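Need the bound structure for manganese (II) ion, inputs here:
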Amino acid sequence: MKVSVTTLPLNELDVDLLIVPLPEDVDEAVRDQLLEDLGPELQRAMDDVGGKKDDSALIYPTEARAKRVLIVGLGKKDDADAERVRQAAASAASVAHKREATTVGFVVPVLPLDGESIGQALVEGFMLSGYRFTRYKTEQTSTFDGPQRMVLHASEKERDARRGAERGRLVAEAVCAARDLVNLSPDEKTPRLFAKAVEKSGKRYGYDVSVWNKTLIEEEKMGGLLAVNRGSQEPPVFVELTWNPEHAVNEKPIVLVGKGVMFDTGGLSLKPTKNSMDFMKADMAGAAAIVGTFEAIAKLNLQLHVVGLIPATDNRPGENAYVPGDVLHMHSGKTVEVLNTDAEGRLILADALSYAKTYRPELVIDVATLTGAQVVALGSNVAALMTNAWDGAEERLQAMTAAGKRSGDRVHPMPLDDDYKEQLDSDVADLKNVGGKEAGCITAGKFLEQFVSYPWMHMDIAGPAFLQSEKPYRPKGGTGFGVRVLTEYLRERADPRTK
Ligand code: BES
Ligand code: MN
Ligand code: ZN
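Answer from helper R.:
Posting the output first, comments after.
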């Protein structure tokens, strides 16, 4: 998508579709200007829509160069946050597709929100909504390739709109890259092939990638990753991503860890197929979110030292598969009694988290499709967020929750009090890998906490990572959840002024 910003007279904008996001309580002056620029046909359409949220009208102007004008309601000005703007842009995107508009203009609305955020939200909503995963379709359903060019018309603060629009474009591209990885057929993303894809991404966007093979993983004594891998045909890999720019503002790196279970059958504790195993190609969505985030921070050239760690394997019931009752010797030295081979994510993450300590990190954040209990607790709009009681826990949760709200990847804090840990006491080992039937999302977090010794946050994205039915600007299938919130959080850390 080509994205640009212009201050040219509005009636000279030569586009297939001109989109006018309109608040209910639009300023008289703004309204009059639109009528003057685009013609009196707009009057009735603006009255009909009245700025009501989720309402819209299409007009064929006679006085402007735009072929069509679409009014989309934004609701009350004061309620119009970035997410509202994103969703309005997304609803316009579906009209753009239906009318096969190759070029699209947007009138940047005047709202009590900074111009950068508005520009970013318009581009994100539009681009994310236009995403299609067509890799495996052999027959083209249409000759229309989707909109190719987006022009934002700014009447004021053109520079802010331009910076926001550019950022929105880069972030949306990174989100779509993560979606592609999640939607890829499992046989095209075995650990080895996935590692290759990350290497390619690193070369393209300018971050470093190193891939450990099984021998190195054995030398590091990553007993969790090796156990989960035992039923598989293909060996595990451990992928390390590094972005260390010259003027990084942080002395100690921020480490991002992603769950890379390329396919989760459940292992010997086999999952049923329907509504369960049939989604499990998405069990690497945490890993995909890390890769997408690296693409975004590299493209944005964030001055922040960030390391990514992805333990990758699939989880299968092969001949040599690990079994309930196995006691594992983890990277940290702790022992874990396996009571359910389907609680595999925490085993591979535990090794990565304990290895993360070697970086003396400022902060470690893991992202994982970890539990069905997260979906029960919060559904598919919001991820679960947890942190340990290390310095600044409250501030961390708050900063991440706020970044979630701004970015549209919402996260909600869960308690991580010590009494939840009792569920993980084992008769024979230091810990067991499953708790009871209560608070499964939290006990999984509690398990991971046993392997960290630095400030840490855990994001369980089981619900939001993969959708059964589409939501505004998120299609069915992989959503790329995590890229936006992590990028926004890191962007604020790199430059607190640009919140
Ligand atoms: N990958 C699943 C979690 C999951 C469930 C992701 C639904 C996306 C949608 C994870 O490995 C798993 O199987 N968790 C078990 C843990 C249980 C055995 C303690 C679960 O949640 O059922
Ligand atoms: Mn599982
Ligand atoms: Zn899993």
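Comments: DSSP finds 14 helices and 20 strands in the chain. The radius of gyration is 24 Å.
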